[in-house]
Amino acid sequence: MELKIQSGDTTAVIDTYGGKLVSLISGGREYIWRETYCYWPDRAGVLFPTCGRLYGGGITYRGKRYDMPLHGFAYTSEFGVEEHSPHSLTLTLRNSPETLRIYPFEFVLRVTYALSGSRLDVTANAENVGGEDMYCSIGFHPWLKVPFSDGVDYEECRVAFPLAVDACHCVMSGGVLDTLLRESCLQNGELRLKHSLFDNDAYMLSGTGGKAVIECGEDSVALSYGGMPYIGFWHMERTNADLLCIEPMTALPGREGVTEDWQTRPDVTLVPPGGSATATVSIETGIK
Fold first, then answer.
1. For residue 151, what is the domain's CATH number?
2. Which of helix, strand or coil describes residue 195?
């Protein structure tokens, strides 16, 4: 089910399947890539309880192995509607017998979309409603239509990181981290877009300072993701699709050759009983 929220001349449409953003129109311009689902049918959903792919497709906890799909299961789950107003929408996903088979923790995941003028804030809150510590990571996956307008070539676009400090490329191979060695990657604080950038899967970065500005011709979109130490950029490898998938994450994908464990994997978020973990990303359109 698709639901709409609006503020001024900005409208967002969110699908309850996956809690995903499927349209963002501001000033009469569509900023979300909507041409086809052929690249990945379950695009753009909320990432929980993992981000990215785990080596071997699984993770252990207290000596037991649990299968875990790419990016977790939230993006392929149907959310309930908790609250819907003209400017905001809150969706809810709760643990079930199906989730407990692959994720042994009791949770309530709330995802709130809120519009204020041309800025869309998306907040995911994962509450631990069980009796023991819960482990998770959270991410987002919006697909932007890049370039934003006709007459601009994809490879004329760039991503600027005005707050970056020692930004590094976290090398990927086959959907998992190839190495923990990280390479300096930005020139003059920016990343120039080119289709071949994604030929080896997502281009993952750390140290970007929690802000990215995608600049295409005279139009720009600002993305704020403070508190999330990593961000990835992706489109289907070896294609010339006019899209840019943005992936801010609280944790990186799994490591090559390592069967991860919930209690020891890098950057995992520990949530005590009754506690919660929160991550927010803001998308502001039409930035000059």
1. 2.70.98.10
2. helix
